[in-house]
Request: fold
Amino acid sequence: MKWEAVRRAREILAREEGAVVKDWGGRLPIALVYPNSYYVGMSSLGLQVLYQRLNARPDIVAERVFWEPGQPPSSIENQQPLEHFAAIAASISFELDILNLIVMLRRAGLPPLAAERGDEAPLVLAGGPVPTANPELLAPLVDAAFIGEADAELDRLAGVLVETATLPRHERLQALSTLPGIYVPDMSPLPVQRIWLADLDSYPTHSVVLTPDTEFGDMYLIEVSRGCPRGCRFCLAGQIYRPARERSVPALVAQAEEGLRHRGTIGLVGAAVSDYREIDSLLARLRAMEARVAVSSLRVRPLPESLLRALAESGSQTLTLAPEAGSERLRRAIAKGVRREDILSAAERAAGHGFPQLKLYFMIGLPGEADEDVAAIAELVAEVRNRFRRRITVHVTPFVPKPHTPFERQPMADAATLNRRGQLLAKSLRGPAVTLRLEGTVWARVQGALARGDRALGQALSRLQAPTLAAWRRVLRSAGLDEERYLRPRGSEELLPWSVVDQGCRVAAGPEPAESYGFAIES
Reply:
């Protein structure tokens, strides 16, 4: 088994550009754990920045560890077992990855409960959007969580880890609890203030290790902006990355010049790249450098002509848009800010630029949704098809209410309702050149429970043996818990687990009161 892991790691390294392999002598070893597959994790700019910044220090060696089903976790660079590291820094981008992280600790011979790990065990830290939104679920499992954006605080955090490496565990945690943005359960003063970076140009964020074995393997990724000014009521990213900020064109061009030495395509990353205020200027500079351009996300409005043209000329095969809801009423209720005319115009323009495929993203189970709103999805897709006579893929996901959003106290739709509405769509969306991809209800509800979980759920999950539905249900039953405890509506006076975090920068979620659409939002 060990030799097989070594062989796989060496094959990965041979296909990468930019990996750092250091000797461990005299350095603090930190495992950068991404509890999902290598294919998914290597598209994470957050992981890449941590890797670059930590390995730039002469006193630290940082190595990547990914989830592999059935395998004890070990690092890519030196094939070291997870338990040999002094600290584990887990990047958690998706709630379901929490299950993988717990099983990774177990397979490494480390107790999943933080209270059961002794002085000789590595410290386990977590960061990323999931712990930033709600670290309380993780409180029994991790030693500390970073709340917010680590860019400007990473060197200070790394320094404390190095300086306290020989101290007893309790003293190391005491030192961490004094740092900005660090949540050490039962030590840190509450609430913990989310950390955010004011000047994005001061910390470039781009690809560091390049590999063909990931979704964006043919691109050099550059973060254009962070946060979103739109305030859609369902969106977690729009809340925990406030305020919206942008990088300057000169800073982005400088990163692109370096990127073009490695890849012909520059992937622009942001909550909505089409919202970037200087998009015309940036695209003109990139195209003058003969760069192909790809984007992570687009809004239906605005949808700059310069961006559509650049994507088409770069050979992009798919244009992805997210109306989110089928009816005008429901789009207003979630503050999406997109009209039917905007969606149809975008489809016509996509056809005019010759894109072979259009992807449309919708949600079902939104607060206030009725069957007519679901029928409106099929009607809207039919109208789009009349204007875009090529392939259309419709992705539909159950709505999951997230912490710190205006919908944080709303219930998640029950499984029967979600399944019935999914079946309605499946029947009504049949037709040539239209493919429906409907995300399953069962795992969406697990995600919902994890998103709004508390310490009781974290304690129960410490007994998880595998990241499977059967194992999930077993640990809930054994602890006397059920999903409804976390998916139910929350009263306006109920203390929420994630109140231990002060997100700051909270602004109004949209221009119109939700009461006008037949339901109320607690805030």
Summary: DSSP finds 19 helices and 17 strands in the chain. The mean pLDDT is 93.
